[in-house]
Amino acid sequence: MAVHNRPALEGLTSCRLCPRLVDWRERVAREKRAAFADEVYWGRPVPGFGDPNASVYVLGLAPAAHGANRTGRVFTGDRSGDWLFASMHRTGFANQPVSVSRDDGLALDGAFVAAAVRCAPPANKPLPEERDNCLPYAREEFDLLKPAVIVCLGAYAWDAACRLLSVRPKPKFGHGAEHRLEEGPLMIGSFHPSQQNTFTGKLTEEMTDAVFLRAREAATR
Length: 221
Hints:
34% of the residues lie in helices and 11% in strands. By secondary structure, the chain is of the alpha/beta class. It has one domain (13-219): 3-Layer(aba) Sandwich (Uracil-DNA Glycosylase, subunit E), CATH 3.40.470. The N and C termini lie far apart (43 Å).
């Protein structure tokens, strides 16, 4: 698969650069999950979402097949998003703790949320070339926002941020790990709010809140 570079945000929702992702996102949108059989799935690349003046940029992995790929808004309509926005509400970044649809009234204050890969991938595992095709979208958002902090949800997002920001050598990922660029944002790592992490107790509400409180503190210095 060829890796393309082009102006990012223009045409994002109609992007078809990655055939494997296009096939999967559209197949899921046609076949649907029984619980959402009556809904019209988004089935396209999912834009970032949040405060246009955000100082904190939150980077996840990719849209969930029956979450953002259904609703059209990043981290909306799945358990990971429930966990994420509840924490962002507790720490003052979101006006409400739940997000179920694009028109449910959720608004972010001081934060912008996006994914390293903008289409739902099979088995939630995007390929390296798919990541690289998507990074220009994050690059343009990042250049527009110029955030003081980037919160990386999981090792994949941490790796993508390092690639995006040309961080070499790559610092080790961990929950609460920090890396400050000489001229750029503070990177903060967090375990991804997947059910694999939250159900097992690897990630607790207190741990997630601590990351966002630290991000707020760093962004206001």
